[in-house]
Amino acid sequence: MNKVSESEARSFRMLGLAPDASLAEVRRAFRKQAMHNHPDRNPGDPEAEARLRAILDAYQRATQAIKRQARDPGSDRQRDPEPAPAESSTIRQPGPQARRPNQTRSHTPRRPLRVQRNLARQILLGLRTFNRMLLFILFVVGPVLFVLAIIWATTRTNWF
Q1: Fewest CB atoms within 10 A around its CB: which of 59, 94, 152, 158?
Q2: Where are the domains of the chain?
Q3: For residue 34, what are the CA distances in angstroms to 26, 31, 41, 51?
Q4: pLDDT, tens digit, for every residue of 81-95?
């Protein structure tokens, strides 16, 4: 195993881990420590924010050390910092033809999501245009017609 520097070892210890911990273990420990020391969970503790920053710094140093050791050819750590899931022959991955025989396509093909979004956008724009037209009629054309009606009515009346 490559020699871990003292600051990296301190980072692992701050997270409660050994220096040979995996990336998944470091993530789990960081989340646990962050939840425990978060300022929102400790409202009366003035040092909670400083502890959370120190834990974040330790997490960053530890993950950088793991990733660096994974890239290092002389390291006995595995090349991948995150292990790949084990392949099992009993689990069948669904392929493109993984439909059951009784499942058939409907007569009307579904519209692509892009077309659905465009249609919704056009409907909304149409509603906006209708609303604008309605407001124009109510607040511009309406008062003008009202004034014209008053003028017409006053000119038709005999005042004598």
Answers
A1: 158
A2: 6-71, 113-160
A3: 12, 5, 10, 9
A4: 555 555 555 555 555
